[in-house]
Write a structure and sequence with these properties.
The chain is of the alpha+beta class. Helix content is about 20%, strand content about 30%. It has 4 helices and 11 strands, in the order ααβαββββαββββββ. Strands 1, 2, 5, 6, 7, 8, 9, 10 and 11 form a 9-stranded antiparallel beta sheet that branches. It has a two-stranded antiparallel sheet with strand order 3-4. The protein binds fe (ii) ion (FE2).
């Protein structure tokens, strides 16, 4: 990861300070058991998550950061993945995305505490955060599996823009199933460690018709965790 010699983060690039809205999240229409059961069957799902005010507050910062271009090709041969996106993970201490991380972590902590048994292999913690921007007409990202180091569940908050996210069976896109979603939704995708499985679903993003900002929260397995 490239750090652009920044230790000030938001102070340098971000919007002027303003407090978060009082209501951050919309009430989910389904309970955590149903969310997990659907993920087991369908690999990924989208559900409304951010209120309009909170999405706008986060988007102000997303629009102000300086993205760097991700490598356009990852892997080689029959494992080649093409992608076109800007990435940013240099969140300063005042970043609004710490607010989102902390509050969404608290939601999951509450859900997991309410369950009789834990669906994950380890204590679920969002220790990896990443903003991505996709430009209209660009590749998006071709079918791939995420790294095995990402565990349990991957959460992508769609802050703005349109694109087609889908699950498929292989790198050719066979058996693709589109996960319809809107700005403000969180797209959840299962990862290894989910209900005792090592399954890593193939997924892709294409047909980007409006500049798309996405904030991803992941649980990365690290030494000692
Ligand atoms: Fe991915």
């Amino acid at each position: 990861m490239t750090n652009e010699a920044s230790t000030t983060g938001e102070a340098r690039h971000g919007p002027s300070p303003s407090p978060p809205p009082a209501v951050r999240f919309v009430e989910p229409a389904v309970g955590v058991h149903e969310i997990l059961d659907r993920l087991e069957r369908e690999d990924a799902l989208a559900m409304p998550a951010l209120t309009g005010e909170y999405r706008g507050w986060l988007l102000e910062e997303a629009c102000a950061v300086r993205f760097r271009e991700a490598r356009p090709v990852v892997g080689r041969g029959d494992r080649l993945v093409r992608q076109r996106m800007g990435v940013y993970d240099d969140f300063g201490p005042a970043s609004r995305f710490h607010d989102l991380t902390g509050h969404y972590q608290a939601i999951w902590d509450g859900w997991l505490a309410s369950m009789g048994s834990c669906p994950f292999e380890s204590r679920f913690v969002f220790n990896d955060r990443m903003l991505q921007v996709y430009e209209p007409g660009e590749t998006g990202i071709t079918p791939h599996m995420d790294r095995t180091a990402y565990r349990n569940l991957i959460c992508l908050f769609v802050l703005e823009g349109r694109g087609r996210f889908g699950i498929c069976q292989d790198r050719s896109g066979r058996g693709m199933r589109i996960i319809a979603h809107e700005p403000g939704d969180v797209v959840l995708t299962r990862a290894p460690g989910f209900r005792g499985s090592d399954h890593r679903p193939f997924h892709f993003l294409d047909r980007i018709t409006e500049r798309r900002y996405v904030f991803g929260l992941r649980h990365e397995r690290r030494a000692g965790r």
